[in-house]
Design a protein that fits this description.
- This protein is α/β, with parallel strands linked by helices.
- Helix content is 40%, strand content 25%.
- It has a six-stranded mixed sheet with strand order 1-8-7-6-5-4, sandwiched between helices. A two-stranded antiparallel sheet has the order 2-3.
- A hairpin with a 2-residue loop joins strand 5 and strand 6.
Length: 203
């Protein structure tokens, strides 16, 4: 596959080029190494595309997982505790998970364990490869990457998305770069408050 477009939010790409050029090189190499045509395995059952051979999101995700896994990129969870009291949550967010749980118990509430999970993390950089439903991208950008950033686990997040030219040859409901680029831009320059790189890919 190849990179068709890149959007740098809050100097995300610039940070990678200066502070982690090796990691940025690994991301680019992984994208280049994925054979898109080998992932064209899904026979559509949808009414408007019945019988057409489409690019398989599962196969593409698996290909990225193999490539990035060989380079040492690993899944990572960020665990935290929540409760319904908003003032308490504001006061404990920056604390460790154990401190959050203790503070909730001390205040007389029941702590609820929660977590965010990211596909790939290495040396303070996170990657999400998104070929799922389009709604998942907003969760990646505004929840996952942001959570890992404010928890001081990462310095930049990378979101890999299909271009419209690729999405149009996949199942319906898949996200595409052009739409999610607008979703980020229309929030204003500082939202989400995490350096990001949106990467649009195509065969």
């Amino acid at each position: 596959m190849k990179i068709a477009e890149i959007y740098s939010h809050l100097n995300g790409e610039e940070w990678l080029r200066v502070h982690a050029p090796g990691l940025w090189g690994e991301v680019r190499a992984a994208i280049k190494a994925v054979d898109a045509e080998a992932c064209k395995t899904k026979v559509s059952k949808e009414k408007t595309m019945r019988g057409r051979l489409l690019y398989s999101p599962d196969d593409m995700n698996a290909a990225f997982k193999r490539r990035l896994g060989r380079m040492g990129w690993k899944q990572r969870q960020n665990t935290f505790w929540v409760t319904a009291d908003q003032n308490l949550l504001r006061g404990i967010y920056g604390k460790t998970a154990d401190e959050q749980k203790a503070a909730i118990l001390e205040a007389g509430y029941t702590p609820i364990r929660s977590y965010n999970q990211t596909d790939f993390v290495k040396d303070r950089v996170a990657i999400e490869v998104q070929f799922g439903k389009y709604a998942f991208v907003a969760h990646d950008l505004f929840v996952k990457h942001l959570s890992f950033y404010v928890s001081d686990i990462i310095d930049v997040g990378i979101e890999i998305l299909p271009m419209k030219s690729l999405e149009s040859r996949m199942s319906s409901g898949v996200p595409y770069y052009e739409r999610d680029l607008l979703n980020v831009i229309r929030q204003g320059r500082g939202v989400p408050a995490v350096p990001l790189v949106l990467v649009g890919i195509e065969p």
